[in-house]
Structures are given as structure tokens and as C-alpha cells.
Batch of 3 targets.
Target 1
Amino acid sequence: MGCRVAGDSSTVLIIGGGPAALVCAETLRQGSYGGRIIMATKEELPPYDRTKLSKAMNVKADSILLRQLDFYQSCDIEVWLRREAVSVNTDEKTVTFQDGSVQHYDQLLIATGSRPREVTCPGADLDNVTLLRTPEDSSRIHQAALGKNVVILGTSFIGMEVASYLSATASSVSVIGNSAVPYQNTLGTEIGRVARKMLEEKNVKFYMEDGVTELTGENGKVKQVLLKSGKILPADVFVTGIGVQPNSAFLKGSTVALDSTGAVIVDKFMQTGVPGVFAAGDVTSFPLSLRKDKMVNIGHWQLAHAHGRIAALNMLKKRVGINSVPFFWTMLMGKSFRYAGYGEGHTEVIMKGKVEEMKFLAFYIKEDVVVAVASLNFDPSVSQVAEIMASGRTISKAQAKSDDMSWLKLP
């Protein structure tokens, strides 16, 4: 790993403190970049493993750091904590921070990630109505939920993982979703039913095709959740997990282009339309090669790493494009669901294995080809499909339906 070189006065400024930011900084040093590297984040901590916050909510913050502080010192990477960017001037190549300080850059990486969407109903400002984004949030929810009634809004990955974890420590856990089953839009109906059953066996209650109209409280703390269906749920803690939105408000009024959702638009080199300005991770809309360069915004841990690396390589003038297959995993009751590809808009799901025995492989079909795959206890099928997709080959619907699965080379 390299470090700063005397006489190199250039500066790479990285806004954000997640995996995309870290990998970018590391890759620059690995590539012998000798200028100044500044990583400025509004976080209280240097980059950490955010995926653990919903899977092990009593985790200690210092145990999930991706790198210890001495690593940054040894590589001459400056880490500025509690420094939130409020504006970017691409003409002058400067970033202004909330404390009024201004930093010049020669190349800029925007890696500010995303933030959870907040519930907007009456009572949303009550105590113990919370989001999950930081280790402090995770610890606060863990402590507040001990032996208490917990209500979770949202049946995607964060909501379901929080419900799974808290089922062992809370007095009751209730989950509210607007779809017929959890994960319906991502993993499909059959896997959603499996996930729901897993949690119901641990006494988690589901209120599907429903929503929240009001939160009521006593002495400033949440006590009840009123549903659209008319049901009333007791709640000492209310957790919102209804998706995220890009952290890009500080770019409004700049020359950096955003899409309609607020995501930063980049090309396959992770470069914006402004020379010398790159973006990576959850904040971006980027061309997905396996879907014919469809512009997508995907908040996956693995993709953030890949984005950071590609951004750094192109800062180093290597001209390498992003060609990574999206991959993620989710943990429920100690079991790992794995997923690869991009299944948005799929029209059919072909199941292999036995869903009732919790051992299956799901192929997501669009226009007669496999666009994504998910599994439970069916390793290493998902990684093998990801390798096929990364090579540019397609898997046909006929192959997915066939009883002959020798092409997948399962053990």
C-alpha cells in the first residue's frame, strides 16, 4: 500500500464514509497515487459494516470498523469525522462544509450513500419512533425493545431483519406491510411466504396489505399504532423500514446532474458529466451492463465496493468500466437468503428444490431469460449464476425450467 509522495500537491476529496469511499481511497494508494486523500464524512465513525446493524443489533461500534485508525495513518488518508458537505462548486473545484470550512479538490468522489425514508403520519415525532442507520440507532432500538412491544413498518430487508433479531428479546413484534407478502416486489410471493412463516414461528405477527394512519403516545412516548384497517397495535418502540433515498440534497444548484429520484447520474466509469467529479455507491444511478446499460440505483454492499474501486481506477486514468453483477444476502433466523442479478420487472419465477423444506433455488424470468436468482440452502448456485452473468452469457427460461441442471454444476 502506498502513501503520500513529497512534491505531489494534488488532492482527491472523498465525500462520504462508507465502503465506496474506503475502497476508493485504498485503490488510489494501491495504484501509487501520491497526492493528498481526504475522506470527509458526517458520521461519528470511520467506515464501518452497516449491514450488521439490522442483523446483530447489540453489536459494539468499534467491532464493525472496516479499518482501524492506524491503517488510515499509515496510508496517509485523512479522515474527517462529523464534517457534512453542504454545497459543491465545480467551477472553483471546492466543497463547503456545514462548519463553514471550504476545501479545494482536483478530483472529487461523491459517496454519500442514502438515508432512510421517514414515516410522515401524525405522531411521527414521538419518542421511540425511530429509523435504523447508525450504530447508535441500532443500540438504542436494541435497548428500548427489551421486553417491550415493538411495531415495525416495512417488510423488505431492514424491516424483516430487525423483526427477526428482536423476536428473541422483545415482548411482542408486529410487522406492517403494504403488499400481500414480505419481499413481494424483490424475491416474489413464494419466498415471501417462506420468510413470513419463519418469523411467525417465532411469534412475529404480520399485518399485510395495511398501513399506518397515526401514532399515539403518552408522556411524549409512542404507545399505540393505528392502522388503515382500523386495528390498533400496542407499541413501546416503532421502527420504520420503508426504503431509502439518495443523500444528494447538497448537490442541488450545482452542475452535477441528478435523476428524478435525486441519484447522481454517472457513466460506466463512475464519472459524472463534470470532468474530475465521480460518484459511487448508493447515491448513484449507473448503467448496469447485464441489463443492456439500463440506468439503475441499487443499494447493495457489494456494489458499493465495486463502484469505489472503479472510480479510483478511472481517477488513475485506467479507463475501466463497471461490470459487476449485483449480489446481496439477508439473514432471517440464522438462515441466509442469497440473491444475484437484477430482477426488477420479472414476469415469472421458476422454483427448483423444495420450498417447504427450506431448500430451494428461484430463477427470475423476463423476456424468456434469467435476470436474477435467489436461494436458500442451495449453495453455491447463486455465485455460479453470477459468474455466468458476469461472463456475458445468458441463461434461458428453458434451461431454468429443465430437469437437467447439469449446466449449473451443482455439488
Target 2
Amino acid sequence: MGKRATSEPPDGGWGWLIVVGAFINLGLCTGTLFALGVLYVAFLDAFGESKAVTAWASGIYSFVSVMFSSVGVGLCKKFGHRAVVMTGGVISFVGFFLSAFATNIYYLYVTIGIIAAFGHSLSAVTAVDLVGKYFKKKLSVALGFAMAGAGAGQCIIALSGSLLQDIYGWRGMLLILSAIMLHITFAGALFRPPPHMITHQKLTNKGLGEEAGQKPNNAEEMKTFIEQPAGETQKVVTVSEEKTPRCQGLREFLHTVHDFQLFKDPVFILFIMTSLGQNIAFGIIIPHWVKRARDFGIGNTYGALLPAIMGISQLFGRPVCGALGNLRLSKAYIWYGLATGVAAITTVASIYLPSYAAQATCIIVLGICIGGYTTLIPVVVASFFGRSKIGYGMAAHVQMMGIAIMCTSPLAGWMRDEHGDYVIAFWIAGGAFMFGCLATFLMPIVWKRRKIKQAKQNNGHVATS
């Protein structure tokens, strides 16, 4: 007899190659944002536009890459993770390759801000979503190693970006980046579906009558096959396109992009509030940390090393936080909330510690905290809403990031111009982190109360029946 099909993820095996592929994808997608930071000055010199006009190239890139991440998750439902990620790598390659021939900054709005960014939106969150389908017991550990790629990409690009530009110029650097983006496609080739999903697909195909030789009459028909007990003939119900609403396909796709039922769940609303607080703070401290270091009298060379230091701390901190989230004696949301709370305290403390050693220490702690809670997001989503919602949860988080960065980064810059320092802006960042911390610890309380209420309602229905 053959092996019985199981719906449980393998928790290893080929899954570790999925982790490697996710590590590469996240490293390249995250590192690109820092590469654009290096290219910002070159674009200013090349095109002679204002700082605000030039900054929109990276701003549009950030917005598009995160806001369309849920589209990638939705496309995976129809085409699979491998096809979506590999397509995203090719699109990113095309975007950066065309950017090397730019004649004005508005050209880059399209090639980098839209084309390359859309390619990345199909790759990063999609890779994390597939890791969640390969692991259950070891999910936190696997995500820790996979998402360490973001720290690696940040560190490598921060250290090598300036060197590449000095040697090859900004056009040559863009051509090199375009070739590097093809590695997303190669990593995506590893993304085969897990065995339990393949088994489910085969069973679905059998249920559609393929084994019995039944095939659709044409591509415009939709057939629904009703499963019968063993030994009985399957009944086929054919629904013609004329009886199907024309907007049904669009509606179904929108439901694969976002699970709108989650927004009716108060626990998910608290998760969104946590994410919003984290990303408001992120949108202030990350773009302005190096600039504030210059206000403290730290030189450009040492200041430029701070993002690399943060990347290194994330590279090692993410696997550690992933392992902590996998401990049986603790809950992942506890470490998730603690990381957000420590980030709040560190952000406020950094305002009053102007020395380079203190700034480097604060950026290390923040790197561990930000990398830690980012790693634990899929684990927290899985624990409260189920593993099938990991992609939706990650997409919601990065979309909050895109909205927050677009709004808070210019606001922090305006506060710096108005008040001459970043004190108020970084206090706001610390408060936003603390807001996210409090919302995190409210999640299990609301979740337990909802379970108790549902249990009482079920008992009431049983008693009345």
C-alpha cells in the first residue's frame, strides 16, 4: 500500500532550500532600497533636479513595492509561488536594465519606481508565505534564517554600493544591479510546492473528472464536481458563463489579494495597530538616523557605517529571535511585544546619547529589535489566525510600512527644519513603538475573550436545541 496523503507540512527536507531561496530574495529586495540611497546623490548630480524631485524615485519605489505585495500573494493562489517569484525577478531585471539608459529623473519614476518595484512586490512577501507552508513546528526558526537575508542585503549593499558607483559610475552600477536581480529568478526556481499541496492538487484534479476522461467543453465553462461516497458516480454540474456574473472573476481575485473577513476580527485590528505603530517609528528613524548623526558631529564616513552595523545586527538577531519564538515555554507574541517595547526605549535613549559609541550601540539594539519583531510577524499571525493567513498578515504589515514611510519621513524632515533638531521626531517614533507594544499585549486578551464568548454562544445553541 502507498503512503497515506497528509495535510501536514514536512517541517524540513526541501523546505530548507525554500529558506535559502527566501534568504536570497529578501536580501536582494531589501538591499535595493539601500542601493537607491547610494544612487540618490548621483541622480542629483546627473539630472540637476531638486532634492525633492529626485527623492520621488525611491519614494515611488518604496510605495509600489509594498502596496502591491498582496497582489503577489493573490497571484500565487492561481499560478503558484515558483512562477510568481521567477516572473518578479525578470520584471526587476528589466526595470533596472532600462534605468541605466535614463536621460531624466522622470524616466526613473517609471523604470525603478514602477517596473522594478512591481517585480520586487511579487518576490519578497511571496517567499515568506511559502516558508509558512513548508514549516509548522519549526516555523519560527525557519523564518529567522530566511528573514536574516534582509539584514545581509542591507549590510552588503551599504558596504559595496559606494564602491560600485565609484568604479563603474551610476549607469554601470544599475547594469550590475539588473544582473543581480536575475538571481531572484534563480532562487525562485527552488520554490516548488510542498508535498501536501501537490497531493491536494492531484486530488482536486481527480475530483474534476480528469481521471474519468471528463474534460471541459471550452475554456468559458466552469464545472463544479460534487464528491460522492466511494463506488458512486460523480455528478457534474456545469455553470455556463451566461449564468455567472461577469465581475465574479474580479471579485474572486480581490478575495485572494486580501482576506477581507480578517478586518472584522478585533484581534487583527490590533495587529494592524501594532504594525502601524512600528512602521511610523521605522519611517522616522531609518531615513534620518545618519542625518541626525551628522547633527551630533559624527563624520560622514563613520555615519555611513551605521546602516551596515544595523544590517549585521539584524543578520544575527533574526535567527536568534526566531529560535526564541520557537520555545515551548513562551509565546511568540511575548517576544514580539518585548522587541517593540525595547525599540521604543532605545529610540528615546538615542536622543540623549550623541557619542558615536552610544549611537552604534543603539543602532545594534534597534537592529536586533526590528529584525526580531519582523521575523516573528508570520509566527504571530499563524498563532492567532492560522498558517493560511501568513501571506495576508505580511502583506498588511508591509503595506502599513509603505503608507507610514510616505507620510512620516517627510514629516520628520520638516520637524528638523522647523526646530533645528530631531528631538520631537524621535520622541514621536518612541511613542509609536510603545503604542505598538501595548497593542500587541492586548491581542491575546481580546482573543481569549472572543473564544469565551463563542463558547457561551455554542453552549446556548446546544441547550436550546
Target 3
Amino acid sequence: TDGYDTRKYLARLPELQLAISQIRSGYFNPGEPHKFTEFADHLVANDRFCVIADYEEYVKCQGEVSDLYMDWVKWTKKCLLNIASSGKFSSDRTINQYATEIWDIKPVEVELNPSKS
């Protein structure tokens, strides 16, 4: 992420600065106050997924979602439309497709309940 400087984003986001500071200080985990210090430092120094850059849009979108959730008729309609539009998904199908198309391997038959003779 050339040209991406997390500190520039943090400079104008005092609530995010506070959250990261609290994570670093152990505020949320007083029993192990330094447990997430390295995580917070790494996020600020090496935010390769641009999480900090996306923060403002995330908060805005979450506000819209929260508002929508308060209207149960609209929320339910969107949920049902989302479910209906999600299409077919099966982890078994996906694994089989990867096995065939990417890994070029064949399935092995496994007897789960072998009969005792």
C-alpha cells in the first residue's frame, strides 16, 4: 500500500485513536494488559488491509444498518431478499470442486460405520 499512512487517518479520527490506545494499554483485558499491544502496534505500523482507511465508511455503513434494524418490516424484507439472492452454496460442493478443478485429485471412499464381522 504505497502512499498509505495510517497516522494521517488516525490524526483525524480521535475515537479510533482512543480505541487503539485502549487496546494497547490493556483496558479491555486487565488480566493480561499487554496481550494485544503487539497487535495494535502492528495495525498502526503495517495496516496492509487498509482497515484504518476503511474505518469511517464502516462506521457510516454500520449506522445505516443500525437504523434499518430498527424498522423490522424493512429489515425482514432485506433479510429475506438476501437469503433468496444468496444462491447455492455448500462446503461439500466447494471442496469437491476445488479437489477436481484446482488440486486435480479424486475423492476416496471412506466407510464411516464399518460392519463388524
